[in-house]
Amino acid sequence: MTINFSQPSHNKDNQVNQITPNSDQVHHSGKLLAKNTIYNIMGRALPMIVAFFTIPQVIKGLGVESFGVLSLIWVVIGYFGIFDLGIDKLTSIRKSDHTY
4 or 44, which is more confident? Predict the structure, then answer.
């Protein structure tokens, strides 16, 4: 979605006035924010709900000891995620700012 801004206007001192989004776009962005907030909450809650029901089945299939090893592997992978330090977001921003 793109927001079209009104064209800048000049006041009597030939200074450019502030560019503001149109009122219908501001109202629309509130609905968009609410919708995206719900999607964000669902994106966090759904994996927890699925894990709540599937992890007992995984424990039964692997056994307690093997699941403990799998859990440790998941923890190590999670710690490596800390060392990302936002590089993936920075890469996305730099790529989107690049003009061809």
Answer: 44
